[in-house]
Amino acid sequence: MTSPTSIRTTDNEPGFGVYVHWPFCAQKCPYCDFNSHVRFGGWDEPRFLAAYKRELDHVASLLTNPPPPREGGESPRNKGSTAPVTSIFFGGGTPSLMQPATVAAILDHIAALWPIAPDAEITLEANPGSVEAQRFAGYRAAGINRVSIGVQSLRDADLKRLGRIHSVAEAKAAVDIAHRTFDRVSFDLIYARPGQTPADWRAELDEALGMASGHLSLYQLTIEPGTRFADLYAKGRLVIPPAEDAQDLYELTQELTVAAGLRQYEISNHARPGEESRHNLLYWRYGTYAGIGPGAHGRLATPRAHLATATELSPEHWLARVEEHGHGIAETEVLSPEARSDEMLLMGLRLDEGIDLNRLARIGGFAPRSETVARLIAQGFIERIDTPLEHADTELDEIRVCLGPGLAPSVPATAAPLGRIRATPSGRFLLNRLVLELSASFTSAAPSLHHAAAP
User: Fold this and answer.
1) Residue 284 pLDDT > 60, yes or no?
2) Does 255 share its domain with 164?
3) What is the arithmetic mean of pLDDT over 291-307?
């Protein structure tokens, strides 16, 4: 297994990304709680393109316009985000319903607003039913260099139960076209489906691993509130595997993917070294990103504050809002240091590489109490990794090797939080609890760790 350090940015920030949400689908899947909408009459794509450009302009102005000068005429140093774009992600909905020319125009507009890193990852999500060789060639020419395909199952009967409108044959053809068109390809599968046994999943996942190149996203079926599946589940008309059976399927997933050389770098994502989704890593490493389009979320480091943004959900209302106000942002929240620390914990603990407690302290000025970390280590829910050698004799390193309750050394609550922590396999099923416990123990970090807040 490759060390997490092979894909981790240690001292540098995770980067700056742009997420573009395309809200339209050919059909709404019964398990889906994403902001997706069916419009049988179609949509005015040129009008939506103009709105995407206007919202991009607005976000760029938020990031680059400095605040008013201080008294005496001196302007603050922070002029906003000028970092290059390291990743762009077209999500949905079904972005592969967009015309390639629309994708190209959006990418050109992003490039006019910000520098684009030479190795930027530019991903487009696609559904097998909307894949054809000529269309994919158009996306490649537009600048897309990675695709993620929503296969979801390699069994026709289960595709129908999941509400998918493509067949297994179409899914396999789409993956084949993608491999011939793009250097980097991923596809999704859903497991822990009704009636699925370990033998069923082993055979299906073996087949999928034979089709995969460098990346697979493997999600357990969950019942999301407000979905058609939630209604069926509540009425007893949909039965999913119990928790212990789902756990068996999860462990089988790890066994087969590791054997195939696809490391689990995040709870549901598996990749060969270097094939990890850089855009999703930007989220999980708590980077900054612009959220563009109906229902998109963003995390922006502006000259005035760190902002969480959310746009209008309805495509038509978003469009009208952009045309009237220049943007479709419906909610803007100034993120406190505590809120940023909580978010970083929640995202970072999903990763196999874990979370850098020194960076956490720099971002929010807080660190979890050493006693709390030691207790969760003793309980088997988190572990310390990559403790720097120069601190091998410190009390914090002693915590790392603590073997049981009551054995933790006494460490001052304000001790410098060195190294990284990550959730263990058991802890990954209790992430919300871990975040609550760690967050509740936050104490002000040593000044040397947060004197210069990270962007």
Assistant:
1) yes
2) yes
3) 96
pLDDT at 409 over 50: no
Question: Which pLDDT band holds residue 418 (cuts at 50, 70, 90)?
Answer: low
CATH number of residue 94's parent domain: 3.20.20.70
Per residue, the 3-state secondary structure of the chain, as one string, reads: CCCHHHCCCCCCCCCEEEEEEECEECCCCCCCCCCCEECCCCCCHHHHHHHHHHHHHHHHHHHHCCCCCCCCCCCCCCCCCCCCEEEEEEEECCHHHCCHHHHHHHHHHHHHHCCEEEEEEEEEEECHHHCCHHHHHHHHHHCCCEEEEEEECCCHHHHHHCCCCCCHHHHHHHHHHHHHHCCEEEEEEEECCCCCCHHHHHHHHHHHHHHCCCEEEEEECCCCCCCHHHHHHHCCCCCCCCHHHHHHHHHHHHHHHHHCCCEEEECCEEECCCCCCHHHHHHHCCCEEEEECCCCEEEEECCCCEEEEEECCCHHHHHHHHHHHCCCEEEEEECCHHHHHHHHHHHHCCECCCEEHHHHHHHHCEEECHHHHHHHHHCCCEEEECCCHHHCCCHHHHHHCCCCCCCCCCCCCCCCCCCEEEECCCHHHHHHHHHHHHHHCEEECCHHHHCCCCC
Single pTM value for the model = 0.86
What percent of the chain has a predicted confidence (pLDDT) above 70?
Answer: 84
Q: Is residue 28 part of a domain?
A: yes
Q: Maximum CA pair distance of the chain?
A: 73
Q: Cα(2)–Cα(275) distance, rounded to whole angstroms?
A: 12
Closest CA to 431 of 332, 368, 351, 320: 351
* 146-168 pLDDT per residue, tens: 999 999 999 999 999 999 999 99
> Token digits for 124?
């487009």
**Domain assignment of residue 295, yes or no:** no
Give how many domains the chain has, as a whole number: 2
Domain enclosing residue 364, as ranges: 338-450
Is a pLDDT exceeding 80 seen at residue 407?
Answer: no
What is the mean predicted confidence (pLDDT) over 193-221?
97
Q: What per-residue confidence (pLDDT) applies to 129? A: 85
Q: Could you check whether the bond before residue 93 is cis, i.e. omega within 30 degrees of 0?
A: yes
